[in-house]
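TL;DR need structure tokens for one chain.
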Amino acid sequence: MGWFGRKKEIEPPHPRKEPRFDLPLNEESIRTVFRDAVDFGTRKVAIGGDDAKTVSLFYIIGMVRGERVNDYLLRPLAQDQELAGMSVEQAYEHMRQGALYNLYVKECDTMDQAALDLVEGNCLLLFPGKSTALSFLVATEEKRSVSPPENENSVKGARDSFVESLRTNTSLVRRRMRAPELRIAEHRVGRQSITPVDVLWMDGIADPDTVHQVQEKIGQMDISNLSAAGYFEEYVTDESHTPFPLTHYTERPDRFCEGLTEGRVGVLVDGIPVG
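>> reply
TL;DR here they are.
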């Protein structure tokens, strides 16, 4: 029953389509997925200056940092003499094992993986005749700088607060919780936004059943775009007619960490500057 005795209507779920793009991973498919996107960029690169060994580079303008693409990808591709003396197949394996100047490289074998990596700030290298692509992290780090909390002022405590960048927020927690027992599990929420959501807890302190319940409810979230904390609370809290809050929000990493040490389960959402 809902409010005032009315029967609550249960809407059928609309799960995210999987696979999102039922296409083979090739240049034509990538261009099809990002058609009519003015910020989609591509260029051909000759390995070692040899036009007979040309690969395709794909990226999203504004999501990648140009200097990193130039220094970590284009320069070694054009100037590395060892790569120049290899076949295309040998060059692919050499790059997959870390020949380019990039800390993060992974192999994509589906169109969904490739498209998601592109919109998250990766560059894709596509080799002729290969059904897989190499993905390199060259994302820009443009974000709001860490500043004092606006709503939870601290007189004698820390003067930093969460921002909209998820990885910045997890690093703020790690700086205070140096224990290896800190666990962070990531989920993707939103049929269209595909928003990263991290669940944090202290192994050995938090109740495993609570951790499981939180992750299960996040996995069942049926929403198109997760853009506000209120949407998240609506899905993860049980229906209750209590005037007391069932979740606690904070923009301060120190308070967030206090909750973790007390056995609470924390949640950080990309794009939302509270925990």
